[in-house]
Description:
three-stranded antiparallel sheet, DNA-binding
Amino acid sequence: MDCRPISQMLGRIGDKWTIMTITMLLDGPKRFNELRRIIGGISQQMLTRTLRALENDGLVSRKVYPTIPPQVEYSLTTLGRSLAEPLTQLTVWVLENIAEVERNRSKASNRSVD
Amino acid sequence: MDCRPISQMLGRIGDKWTIMTITMLLDGPKRFNELRRIIGGISQQMLTRTLRALENDGLVSRKVYPTIPPQVEYSLTTLGRSLAEPLTQLTVWVLENIAEVERNRSKASNRSVD
DNA sequence: CAGAATCCCGTCTGATACTG
DNA sequence: CAGTATCAGACGGGATTCTG
């Protein structure tokens, strides 16, 4: 089978900002700067792009309240919530194994790894 | 909590070539060009880089047989196999939902999409 | 066969400044 | 507040050539 479309898709949803954004939206709708704050380390531009891409793919919905100052709320669609499951598992794996990976990484500068 | 190290790690293992490589190694050890062929669309350099990174992180082990012509075999370590689980779930999600995502994407073709 | 080295381009990403 | 516009550096990733 041809893996190109799949790997392209993986490259898109596997993107770290996408994963973080979806994960953060799991416990409810969030506003732009709120998201930016809790994700941490993401630039305003990257958050905008990530949200646009997610919205375009139908994973996140964007709701604008025509108030002053403007208020925009982002939330997961049903499809987005279904993606959150496997992404959460991936995050769990990272949390459980990041220490060992980093140990391996520093070891590899001294001797060849098994 | 600080999400930076986590998102960095996610960006590394979420990389499409990494996901494809680990997935392909799931059903047994593979040689370099064999991997390259079944992954499809990956350049020699990217496969080399991906395998080096995986080896360095202790997710893949590299075994060299000093024959002529040289033969190198890559296989998953225990840690690598544990990562394969969540990655497989992600791949399954892609397979199940790629059609809907692409439908959403074309529907939203209001302005420049990639 | 399994790479290493090199060149090169497009994309990602952050920083900064500006707007409705 | 929630963006858009622009610049610039880092990085991803392909193509090609060369070696043990």
